[in-house]
Predict the structure.
Amino acid sequence: MKTAETILELLSSKNTIAKVRDWLRKNKDKGRHALAQYLCGALNITDHWGNPRISGVYVALRLLESRGFWKLPKLRAGVASQQQPRRMTTAVPAPKGVPAQVEEVQGLRLVEVSTGEDQLFRTWNELILTEHPLEDCRLVGRQLRYLIGSDHGWLGAIGFGSCALHLRARDEWIEWDPSTRKRFQERLINMTRFLIRPQVRCENLASRVLSLCAERVASDFAARYGFEPWLMESFVDTEQQLGTSYQAANWSPIGTTAGLGRNARGNRPSKTPKAIYFYELTRDWRSRMGLPPLSEKIKPVAVEEAFHNGNWVEAEFGKADLGHEDRNQRFVRIVTAKAQQPSAPYTQCFSGNRHELKAYYRLIDSKAEEVNPESMLQGHRERTIGRMKKCRRVLGIQDTTDLDFSERLHCNGLGDIGKNQTGAVSQGLKMHSLFAVSEAGVPLGVLKIQFYASHYAETPKAQDRPIEEKETYRWLSMMDSLKDAAQYLPPEIELIGVGDRESDMFELFDYRRRKAPRVPLLVRAKHNRCLEENSRKLFDHLTALPVMAQARIAVPRQREKKSKPSKPGRVALAARTAQVDVKWDKVTLSPPDTAQTRELQPVEVYALSVVERRPPEGAKEVRWVLLTTVPIRSRKEALRCLRWYTLRWRIEEWHRVMKSGCRIESHQHQTADRLARAICIDAVIGWRVMLLALLGREVPEMPCELMFSRWECSLLEKLQPLVAPETVTGKKKLCFGVAITIISRLEGL
């Protein structure tokens, strides 16, 4: 059994070229079919069933003819017409009475199409030729075709063929070498055609059809060709589609194509670059290919390397792939300059060097698709996962913060972030981040950042849209990021997703159950949900329980807020330690009665109630209900979950460092994309600043040499009597805590 590429290589060998030329010389009266049959027998080119692979040999013969290896016999009269696709004499009838919700579609099914079923084959060809944007029904290599059937009529069509022979982003993601790719490339198939008919308007139909394909393709392919595929790939034109149906069906985006196409010449793009989506038909495909598990791909990294490594910028950003090596090196130089003065503008960071400043603007203004937040943070993400490997448990905290750019009057791509006291809408961006923190509270790094603009006036009713089209889908998409990060961790390391009240969505728990079961959730409840087991609602059920434990938690200082016409203000209060009563129970949450959730199954979680006993006057009392998929069966486990949630403030501290220390809201760029790129640099620098500040408070006695260079320590020692005379002691070595004090006072001057 040979793959298409192996057939081409086999026919390209010197011995085979001599055989073909000799056959053509001796059999001038015979045609191409006879030649293909001869080669299949002579070279043992067969499939899993032992049948000759005539079509694959045909393709290789024609391709080598175009390269000048030989001249094949002319096609016989009528053969060219036989190669035209079989079509219907009339258009395919439009479906009737298709409901707006996929749950209401009657008889939704996939109908496999074989070459022997002439009417189905003609219907498939007619749909693709007349209603698919490519208007081409040809498939390459081993093929599967399906019609999307229903009691309402034909709703669309799907076609599978052989995968792309060479695809850089895919091959790097799989991490196979050329020999491994040749051996197992047939285990990867390509969804080359996917059509939902233009007149069909049915929510979630595409994602449901993709799920049906995932259930059938492997067995149908094996029945036809004798072996099962392990992976599926597909390409999405992001200029036409968002790819949300693929994401909802658990397909994973892994990169973009170069736009070369299957028949491109040279390195000139002939097509629009497309997003590559992947689906795993079997979970152990890596081991079957003999590839190392993902958990061995990223090496463990000690947190200490983030601050005493003098080349930390290269370590955190050196693996960023921005499409060109010069661009990668320029990126590292820019971050190095910015890291020296996090709060300064770039004109000051480069000390007036116009060439370096021009290089910065050239990078930020780049139109290359590779220059995006995900690529810029790729190296830091890998280092973060490496630091996670040194921990027993890791909290993946996600949260959203508003970035106010109201003063950028000519900035394109901004949205609404809120209203001021006069009712005017402030303009800016929303930044949703996934921040990794150890169980001890040490910030480990940034796993992902999403930027988006919100528009209040354009938002239709929430219940009329699927979750994939809502802003709140960002919480679900971060679960995919947590799932991907967990693949690189050994099984003994636990990664827990943590979110505040805004993340209390039934869809999030259902999404986690179906697609990321390895990642537990810990969420603060916002909604008083219905329970399956009794008539009481969640909050009432917890209130009726007796107090099971008591604890103390540190509450940050309460900032003063001025009153608004629609909202009272609050006084400023110092940080305090709150005495809280703790209760817990295992509950089953009922799905909300909405069109998108009423068909979902109930979810079992553990509910933890935390209520402050005697809050100070004017303080907002601590009253939390935490929902988690982590089992709570004892006081120890309950207090552990409570401690995890108190670490959620780490992401708030990181936001504050970026806004006050790195001054991300002071960037003067004129588009949202440029602002996002600049903020990605600040995000990693802000993480490191935050890490240094925490260590200065928690471990102030550390030697200063661990964090700063020799000349920096010497300068700080000379400044100490002038800036912080009360810290001068008889010790010769300057400690890290005192160094931080000196730097903070210099910043205030």
Q: What stands out?
A: DSSP finds 26 helices and 17 strands in the chain. The mean pLDDT is 85.
